[in-house]
Design goal:
The chain has eight helices and eight strands; from the N terminus they run βαβαβαβαβαβααββα. Strands 3-2-1-4-5-6-7-8 form an eight-stranded mixed beta sheet, sandwiched between helices. The chain is an alpha/beta fold. α1 (17-28) crosses α7, α3 (65-78) runs parallel beside α4 and α5 crosses α8 (250-264). The protein has a single domain (8-264), classed as NAD(P)-binding Rossmann-like Domain (Rossmann fold). The chain starts with 7 loop residues before the first strand and ends in a 7-residue tail after the last helix.
């Protein structure tokens, strides 16, 4: 339950794998954790294993921007504070598929849904400052082709995934700049390489690292006192690292922001 000075965290994609582990560790540290997943049954199952139970859960399919807006409305209406947002949910699609709005699915779920969710929740994050946004990206990063952002000309699963993850890093840098001085810090990280998750096993085969290793990295960036005030950075594990060069191009970051706003429509639309 959310009470008094208890910090509140929302973790997307928290019914399995990395997100579930992060939610569990944050709850162990005393956070009131709001879970998110696509299935009510899976949310209830994950909530049952949290120390002290969950502060609540949200059922939403992030391939639908309409459901993302509904999810944000529920948080804004039902919560007095939001100290931490962990944008973790992600997919890899072997074939090119489209979201409900007609966007390339990997880009829509991994990046665009989190772009929209974060901006819609910013008023609450700012009121709760100091607050943090952690974008779970990847070391797999590929430059965005602004002439074909939806990969209609040519598609490969890893290229789509790597573009979506670089977009998360670029968004992190751009948003951190916009929020300078507000007390809301925004960072991105590659938690660990090929963790032992369902997505990795189905898409890549043999894992290379444990979920626990990734959890430690995410929770450090989310909650460590060592990182108070740190914003606009990219980490690999627990170490600060260099992202793809496109992430450091201000013009490219601004172009991605404008593209994202256009794809989402007016951010107020459909609230």
């Amino acid at each position: 339950m959310e009470a008094g000075n208890t910090k509140t965290a929302l973790v997307t994609g928290s019914t399995d794998g990395l997100g579930r582990g992060v939610a569990r560790e944050l709850a162990r540290r005393g956070y009131a954790v709001i879970l998110h997943g696509r299935s009510e049954a899976r949310c209830e199952e994950a909530a049952a294993e949290l120390p002290g139970g969950a502060a609540g859960y949200l059922v939403a399919d992030l391939s639908s921007l309409g459901e993302v807006r509904k999810m944000a409305r529920e948080v804004l209406a039902g919560r007095e504070r939001l100290d931490l947002l962990v944008n973790n949910a992600g997919v890899i699609s072997r074939e090119r598929r489209e979201s409900r709005e007609g966007f390339e699915l990997t880009f829509a779920v991994n990046y665009l849904s989190h772009f929209l969710l974060t901006l819609l929740l910013l008023p609450l994050l700012r009121r709760s400052a100091p607050a943090r946004v952690v974008n779970v990206a990847s070391a797999a990063q590929s430059p965005i082709d602004f002439e074909d952002p939806m990969m209609e000309r040519s598609y490969s699963p890893m290229e789509a995934y790597a573009r979506s993850k670089l977009a998360q890093v670029m968004f992190s840098f751009a948003l951190a700049g916009r929020l300078s001085g507000t007390g809301v810090c925004v960072n991105a990280l590659h938690p660990a390489s090929l963790m032992d998750t369902k997505m990795v096993r189905e898409s890549f085969g043999r894992p290379m690292s444990s979920v626990e290793e990734g959890v430690r990295a995410v929770v450090r960036l989310a909650a460590s006192s060592e990182l108070v005030g740190v914003s606009g950075r990219y980490f690999e594990g627990t170490r600060e690292a260099r992202a793809h060069p496109q992430a450091y191009d201000p013009a490219a970051r601004e172009r991605l922001w404008e593209l994202s706003e256009g794809l989402c429509g007016a951010l107020d639309a459909g609230r």
